[in-house]
Design a protein that fits this description.
Elements (H helix, E strand, L loop, with lengths): L10 H22 L3 H23 L4 H25 L7 H6 L19 E6 L5 E8 L11 E10 L8 H5 L16 E5 L3 E5 L8 E10 L11 E4 L2
Antiparallel strand pairs: 1-2, 2-5, 3-4, 3-6, 6-7
């Protein structure tokens, strides 16, 4: 049974909760939308479980009494789960009524999850011409952030060895870097991935040009972690 389960773990506490529900439904079943057969069945199962517990306490425990207990409490708790799932809602129940049934109020306060503090970098290999293969790995002293919401934003930019063949239109469209980047924000392109291994493929005429790469954590909302170190390599 989960530690977060709303149903008590001990049979004594389960009986206490069931008794509270039986008494509450006597006056509120109609207003809460609980059908009469459901309320009646709860009373019957509560009575059966109470009798099974009394028998087990009086008589010597054996396989028969143990099975009787398991069956009675299994039927009772299954019905309680079904009752809660199908008929206990707020509204029509008030918060006070919900708590009086022995259940915690739903936590509607959003949990603040801070951005990652881990720093990652890209190890570069050369799978084929006009492509760079990246393995994203934490720098020394850091670990991967395993939270499902977080992936990686890979920033990169290509610097020609000279401006021959590079038109002003290309520069305006930010296809190439104008200089060796001084910080990652100067990199001209990026994409998001959740994979630790990624591939960047370039146009054929980028072969021999220098590519600068930087990686940081990012989530689907655009929240970002710290910049990693900038790597660079010539495109094969």
């Amino acid at each position: 049974m989960s530690s977060k389960d709303w149903l008590p773990s001990s049979r004594t506490e389960q009986l206490t909760m069931a008794n509270i529900w039986v008494n509450a439904l006597l006056n509120n079943a109609t207003r809460w939308g609980v059908p009469a057969p459901m309320a009646t069945k709860l009373t019957q199962l509560f009575t059966k479980a109470s009798e099974a517990m009394k028998t087990a306490q009086i008589e010597e425990r054996n396989a028969v009494t143990n099975q009787m207990m398991r069956t009675a409490f299994g039927d009772l708790t299954d019905h309680m789960r079904d009752l809660r799932r199908r008929h206990f809602f707020m509204p029509p129940l008030t918060e006070a009524e919900w708590v009086s049934l022995g259940m915690r109020l739903p936590d509607t306060t959003p949990t603040h999850i801070g951005p990652p503090t881990s720093v990652v970098t890209a190890e570069i290999t050369y799978p084929h011409k006009n492509a760079l293969s990246l393995f994203i790995t934490p720098i020394d002293g850091h670990r991967y952030d395993e939270r499902a919401d977080w992936g990686f934003r890979i920033y990169f930019g290509v610097l020609p060895p000279n401006m021959n063949g590079v038109t002003e239109e290309m520069m305006i469209e930010r296809q190439y870097l104008r200089r060796v980047p001084q910080n990652p924000e100067e990199l001209t392109a990026s994409h998001f991935t959740r994979r630790k291994r990624d591939l960047i493929e370039f146009p054929y005429d980028n072969s021999g040009k220098q590519c600068f790469i930087c990686v940081r954590y990012e989530n689907s909302k655009g929240d970002k972690g710290p910049w990693g170190p900038m790597s660079n390599s010539f495109i094969p």
